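Dissemination and training. As part of the outreach component of the grant, students in the summer workshop were shown how a complex can be specified as a set of sequence lines and then modelled as a single object. The example used during the hands-on session is reproduced here so that future cohorts can follow it. Participants entered these lines:
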Amino acid sequence: MSAPRTDAGASTDLVILQALRGQSTGYVSGAELAERLGLTRSAIWARMQELRQRGYDIEASPQHGYRLVSSPDALVGDDLLARLGRGTIIGRQIQVFRETRSTNDVVERLARDGVGEGVVVFAESQTQGRGRLGRSWVSPAGKGLWFSVLLRPRLLPGETTRIVILAAVAMVRALRAFRVPAIEIKWPNDILCRGRKLVGVLTEMQAELDLVRHVILGIGVNANLEAGDFPAAVRPNATSLRIEGGQPVDRAALAVTILRELDQAYRRLSAGDFESLAAEWAASCGTLGKEVCIRVGDRLIRGRAEALDDTGALLVRTEHGRLEAVVGGEVTLVH
Amino acid sequence: MSAPRTDAGASTDLVILQALRGQSTGYVSGAELAERLGLTRSAIWARMQELRQRGYDIEASPQHGYRLVSSPDALVGDDLLARLGRGTIIGRQIQVFRETRSTNDVVERLARDGVGEGVVVFAESQTQGRGRLGRSWVSPAGKGLWFSVLLRPRLLPGETTRIVILAAVAMVRALRAFRVPAIEIKWPNDILCRGRKLVGVLTEMQAELDLVRHVILGIGVNANLEAGDFPAAVRPNATSLRIEGGQPVDRAALAVTILRELDQAYRRLSAGDFESLAAEWAASCGTLGKEVCIRVGDRLIRGRAEALDDTGALLVRTEHGRLEAVVGGEVTLVH
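and obtained this result:
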């Protein structure tokens, strides 16, 4: 009997990491791996040595084989894939860069080259990380999750607010799974913890008039930043999982949880179920029900944030009693 | 007294062509040109020789100086600039390529490099000219006007239909100035002559959720194509100014007229006067008042095209009596 087949294109490391992570006993035998990969047992041994050099603590037992004891605090594409498992749209392909200008720029190039949706690009650090409206985003090496996802949704340009809603819902779910307390969504796309920014989302699109070619969802998660990692100007309004929880988080585990939640939320949207996403979003949104002041370009809109409409726009009841649909902009809560 | 100053960056050819085209007497003296440009009279003579080699018929008279008799049937950036005059936004910078993949692609790169709005790129031929929704656009060398305009309007992604309306209005005005009969707009962005396609517009944008970074208006004008220049599949539904008028048109003059009309329409939009543009558009639109069937992605919308809304979307009264706002899509008239 032959060993179970793996994907034709899967790398040796991916197969090894899948096997190490997939064993409920904890051990996978060198003989089995060798057969599955068509390599000699000494070649498998050499690969294990290399993984050890990359920070993986792998125990070897003559009786039982190999066992993964711990992983390095680094993002490794093959390992993220191994942990994510197969069958997701988002994360069907993962690239990790040590440093890049901006992961959105990398994904933009991939999109223009015709790469399919679901590809995710992480960078350990970004030299020119971007926030919304041309602002910069601090992305120090090894401290956060800075990544971008390529989507090709069937939406009109005016409907892409839905992607932001989806991302916010997925982020809230992932953060709650990591027991981060006091999470709330600040419309349209910030995630706050105790009122301070924990996650930012930058949604960029390329479109014809009536056809979105692609959307790039750029997400920055302040995972293990310490107060001193933030520039002074940002510090009072920013926080991280580490600051909130008092200890570093496993960034790879967090990344996998986020990608899985994004994938599920995207499937809900694609299945036409925006309504339940919007309801879930509303339940976590600190902006709804509040008096707000929103700057959209030159305009200032004041009123009470009442609900979302079916495109994802915020419905604001203005002073004049009119209900206005607002797409994006700079929100200030009025006290 | 010194000669009038020209723009610091203006090329010698631009200044010479401006002078030749700007003289009501028809003549411009070599001495005056030499002084204005800080060149010797023999250097001016050499430039004139070079312009002659590029197809300009320039007469030289010992008494009066130089006079432009005729221009070549070629698009020359400096000459288009000279004819357009100063003070326009659209066309403040003009590049002409002999051949390119797609002028929209060239402008996209310029946009990403931070070039300001108003730059226009022409190509004598495109190897991969694009129409809407991924279709190809036939762009044989020297037969048409294939060009793209970079705009940075203050619009939301859902409002860019306005740019299409603006372009259609400008095209209708320019074609009427060229006495093309039986022009009508097919919503959203084709210009038909006697029911056949004369002009196509492809609007592409790069945007954040609530901020259009840039819009690229790609326009293809079938100027001097003959029936045999169109692929057989397209021939029955396509036409050109040459086919309609029975003789070739001056492409450069047409280009200048179009750019001037685009500039004026863009100023109207920027000044907040979308209403009058929409009214003008409606007056030339063959789609309004008709029973239509519109394919938007997977959906088929049937009904009577009644009006435009304030974003530029088409309002269709469906069979159920509901008024639906349609953004783009494939329109068929129902007979």
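Chain B touches chain A through 27 residues (CB under 8 Å). Students were then asked to discuss how this feature might be tested experimentally.
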